[in-house]
């Protein structure tokens, strides 16, 4: 293989190297496009599942399982960021740099081959000059030889004149001189060609080949570095990706089912009492006693006709667990017929029965219909839901207290921001006053006035919410009987799951007739008074009267001494027996009565309670 073939092979090899470099750059570019599309899809996924507003206000944000989910989504967002870092590094360190280096190599390669082409062209030109001088020398030598032979021939010819002979000799000498000059020229061109050829093959072409070799080796080294960057870029983000994965694992480990159950309890704990048992109301007594003039039936209470002091207003304190029930309005009151004070005989046999002018069964059914209709109408109103008030009085006590505390904290944060803004504006105003060229101090007055107005508004709101909070806490601490007494006490250890202390069970309340009838024994039963006798006659008891009728629901023994120095409390000594008037409503206090008189609240944990 001659040098020309080697030059062409080197040219093909260097071109192949540049093509490989461009192919690798294209490969990395497509890889970065995949990484960017992957990161973009991950970002869209994170944006889709991350909440668009502040989650601190959502009740779901308090559950650790939801917090863990948000943490996983956030870690995935960081993971997407690392994929973007990979794409950016690959683009910068490989695509951009190698593309730039490839363009430089193309220019350098072009210059080297142009230099080699010039050297080849110079050598070819020198060779052509040599060939031309060689042919001229050959031609002049033949011409000189012919002239010499012609001169010798004329010299031997006897017929030739002396002038012809001299002329032939001069021509021969001229041709000989020209041949000698051609010989010298040929020798000169030959030396020049040999020199050029030696320089071409031993100096110029080796230098060009060395430059091309260096260029190709530099290209190979940069391609090698690009291969390394391809893997190193991925390796650099592995620690951060590992931290993202560790964060996801930590979020998974942070999920605590017990804690979430407790959070659910705290979120929905109302602080209401559980409702007591519903009394059995015997509607069959009026039917069984129609043959006598005695009372229609024993009022709801004890079987001997005496009113049970626990009954007044029993259903008024019902609270519901799974829905916010409104109080059922009492049936419409009928005119109360005044009755004389009961005698001893009436106290024994119960109040006198009304005199019926028609079948007692029809009378009872009529009373049931009259009682059921208003109750059904009242249930329709429950669908409209509670009216939301500014002081959150529509919420249960515990939820109201938490909501008010949350509002106070929010207003305090806003107040602190406004105060900081006010201070910053005042400092800026001072700066403007000291250096007027920086600004006009009067331009800040509207903003300062607005900030002061906002501060005053926020302080008023905080005072308002704090007053409502004090009211709510005072009601929880000094809660008085609400005409609801519990008959059965279920211990906290016996409660089923998802019924923490303080929750109430939903109970279906039967539709009943009111037992409080007051009829005059001397009432006449004319046609005009027939409808009045068929109407149930209700009486409302005053709160104080109901409290006077309340009797102890159990007994308790003081396990520790309590001074009872605050208002509403009562002192007790260790071992003292007390009457239990009202159980703990979830606030840690129990109302008791001393045997010598006097009622008040004592800590529940200081007592050993026994219910009737």
TrEMBL record:
Stretches assigned to the SH3 domain: 551-612
REM-1 domain span: 394-471
Composition bias type Basic residues, residue spans: 313-327
Main location: membrane
UniProt-listed GO biological process terms: endocytosis; signal transduction
The F-BAR domain, residue ranges: 1-260
GO cellular component: cell cortex; cytoskeleton; lysosome; nucleoplasm; plasma membrane
Keywords: Cell membrane, Coiled coil, Cytoplasm, Cytoskeleton, Endocytosis, Lipid-binding, Lysosome, Membrane, SH3 domain
Keyword Cell membrane: yes
Pfam families linked to this entry: FCH, HR1_TOCA, SH3_1
Subcellular location: Cell membrane; Cytoplasm, Cell cortex; Cytoplasm, Cytoskeleton; Lysosome
Keyword Methyltransferase: no
Biased amino acid composition, Pro residues: 328-343
Polar residues bias: start-end ranges: 285-297
Spans annotated as Disordered: 276-358
SMART domains membership: FCH (SM00055), SH3 (SM00326)
GO MF annotation list: identical protein binding; lipid binding
PANTHER family in UniProt: CDC42-INTERACTING PROTEIN 4, FCH AND DOUBLE SH3 DOMAINS PROTEIN
Stated family: Belongs to the FNBP1 family.
Name this protein carries in UniProt: Thyroid hormone receptor interactor 10
Organism of provenance: Chrysemys picta bellii
Organism taxonomic ancestry: Eukaryota, Metazoa, Chordata, Craniata, Vertebrata
